[in-house]
């Protein structure tokens, strides 16, 4: 089905070749997972297999033999970057038009495809923008199925989805791909392991270091896989969390008190909270379904949207919004939006320079932060040149200053690999131990049960539960 | 987020987008070569009535959309009226010099912009972008490559608007949403533009790759999900426009509002 012999590939401008003499072949009907550290070239290889390189992306490459299937269905990572039409039916029709399917047959085919991915909609003419991430990915799968592909290539299809979306997408994929050849690149492999029968493992130089049945590769290379920050099942069981986690903080004075807070979006009331108090040393996890108002709550606490209600900082009423930014820091989901300078070290110095602190103090502060967040080697780079994990670290490091005592985070671990997630959680725990408080929107139940001291559940713009989280017993070592 | 206003589909929505373009575009040229203010006033009345009655939008929304154009009407005509040249002086005070000629020329200019606005709004409010491009592909033989690129771009706009708000919030939190001085303002523009553009460029490239991965090439002959044809509504539109233009033109001769027939 797929046969590649001695593939060499180098991105223009890159120092090193991505692949040197990589060979592999995949038989009809096989389900294969490509696994390896980020930057090892798994996605690039997938694009070569799908013919996207060099047909759509012109990357210099050479192979002694290259046999790739004619019809390939490719599902991409970003749900917002794979549709060109505004409505569900139009997007499906776009593929059918490409295939030259007569107009009379389209409606029936569209309905059939949507049914296969279990995308139940009140009507096919629904704006794609109103769909959730998981539904968008299922729509992408449906439109790809219309191509009648010999091979399905899945390029981290659930990397940007929440747990619920991830589950439904994999359920759908398992159903529709049962009798097809499937090649998968994925970091969160919990849902994938029982589906694939073969793993091809890469090292950071893009060489294949293992290729064999799933359970063999997985058990032989377990520690290598763990080191690469891949989310594999039981990763939490082998993780040793800081001993201080969930331990109550000694001096729990009141930081923020909120009375009848209401937040609005375009005149519509989106969140209404009777009262809330945040104490020093708390780690509050904000949970709830998509669209319940979790992010809106954070934005209201920060007065980023129009709000009504009274806010008190350490028992004092807050005179203006600017004061709020002195006490509370906010870390956004997409770190790129928060960068304001062109270099990592300038980014870290920005807050101190705003306070007009003497330049030697600023320099010391920057050195300290570079050290603390492991960004020393990247100090002269543009923030956009960093890896996903480095961007996350930089955005946290740059947002938080000494004057802040409360940190709001909107899904900070989203799209991060296991290694980066644990590093961030450990930093947050150390931060909490300094008598600061953390309010964090998350979908990850495990983070809640392992790190949070309190949980808020948001439903339809209301706080329906505000409860302490019982510390979990400390589990050492792994199971199996 | 909702960016749409509600509307009812009327026969103006049913008319073929290409036909609308073919009928409206020449009007822009014709209007420029009409120098009789009476004609323009009649046409403005006629097309305003057509637009108000059949746009399918609530009067409240239509009037709201008209506001900026009324402002342009006042500003273009007033500058012409107050500072134009002419022989019959009505009023003079320092730089301000109102003459009969400049007054009518200003009013004429104002109606011209108003007519442009009406045609522009009438087209934009009664034409779905998707159908416009389907029609252009089918009637005007526009290459699918261009049509779908535009449609993909249209999809990016609301996403960009949402991202703009997020960037604004993010900068506000870091106290980087305000700046003093010219250099500061320039820096500020960069702060907004770079994240927005870099996101859009990457997204655009990904969309392009994914479109090709879905079999979008220039080679095959394609079918169309929406079959857009010329029809009776195009004839209606042609007849209505023809009547307004011709009747307006002769009425201007027979029952003029102002004596001037040529503002030049």
UniProtKB/TrEMBL annotation, chain A:
Membrane topology: Peripheral membrane protein
InterPro entries per the UniProt record, alphabetical: AAA+_ATPase (IPR003593), ABC_transporter-like_ATP-bd (IPR003439), ABC_transporter-like_CS (IPR017871), ABC_transpr_CbiO/EcfA_su (IPR015856), ECF_ABC_transporter_ATP-bd (IPR050095), P-loop_NTPase (IPR027417)
Species in which this protein is naturally found: Anoxybacillus tengchongensis
Pfam families from the UniProt entry: ABC_tran (PF00005)
Lineage of source species: Bacteria, Bacillati, Bacillota, Bacilli, Bacillales
Transmembrane annotation, as ranges: none
Name of the molecule in the record: Energy-coupling factor transport system ATP-binding protein
Record flagged with keyword ATP-binding: yes
Gene3D superfamilies membership: P-loop containing nucleotide triphosphate hydrolases
Enzyme nomenclature, EC number: 3.6.3.-
From TrEMBL, chain B:
Protein location: Membrane
Designated name of the protein: Energy-coupling factor transport system permease protein
Cellular component terms per the entry's GO annotation: plasma membrane
Residue stretches spanning the membrane: 12-34, 40-57, 64-83, 114-134, 235-260
Statement: the UniProt record of this protein carries the keyword Repeat: no
InterPro entries with a match to the protein in the record: ABC/ECF_trnsptr_transmembrane
Superkingdom of the source species: Bacteria
PANTHER family according to UniProt: ABC TRANSPORTER PERMEASE, PROTEIN ABCI12, CHLOROPLASTIC
Membrane association type: Multi-pass membrane protein
Entry keyword set: Membrane, Transmembrane, Transmembrane helix
